[in-house]
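Title: Prediction job returns without error message
Component: structure pipeline
Severity: low
Priority: P3
Assignee: unassigned

Description:
Job completed but the reporter wants confirmation the result is attached to the right record. Sequence as submitted:
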Amino acid sequence: MDSFEGIVEFIAVAESNGFSAAARQLGLSTSHVSRQVARLEVRLGCALFARTTRSVSLTQAGQGYYRQCQNLLVGLRQANEEVTQQQLQLSGTLRVSAAGAFAEQYIAPVLIDFARQHPALTIEMDFNSRMVNFVEEGIDFAIRFGALKDSGLVARKLANRDMMAVASPQYLAEFGIPKTPQDLRLHSCIISNNDHWLFQQGDGELSIKVEGRWRSNNVPAVIAAAEQHLGIAYLPKSSFIAPLAKGSLVPVLSSYWNRGITSWIVYQNRRFLPMRARMAIDHLLAHFADWLE
């Protein structure tokens, strides 16, 4: 069994590209991780990593060994979980990255319900739209909206979401009602994540570059600016439920709204996910299976 020592540390270093990051991931000291990997290299009689003062990378031998060890470790973890699944009590910490009003209003309550069902489980939600490093930060999965840029991640469709353009009655009375998306170039627009708004026109899509006096990546701040007559806002329809109900905002350009933009569950492209992450993802997918914006 001594020949298995250091393999977990080796895989962690390979996946996180560094001894310090691997130590944080495993909850061990950097010196312990380094020592275990060094002992493994001595037993194998070859270097698994090329080390410099600035980086750590797999050697050719290390790459082949990593592929084999990863499969072995995945199989062992899955075997352990399958044996204990019948008497499963989820524990540990589930770390989720999310952002926006959809995550606050809809994702968080579902995960709260999941936590309530599993009293030994801790859930940490980081509300941040930045790109995360799943390995270094210990993130199990993230919730993201729209087109995904990182093709190295697994993406599972959570829900389709329709967009909606709105403005305050006072703003429209003063500046007029836009008839087509092209008219937005003559209006002040409240910009959230980007200044290119995508609309549907006939069977195609139309991208309009907009400008305005207010920009924020916070949905409540965008809504507040629209209610204070600063311009036209364009967000997922569910963002505007309350202001539409009280009449502080009204829809515009309804025949051009982009329909069916997707919210995704994304996670690192690897075969093994902890049971707590797999069950949380299944819980979210089941909840949103028939969800409508």
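Comment from assignee: result matches the submitted record. The first strand starts at residue 49 and ends at 51.
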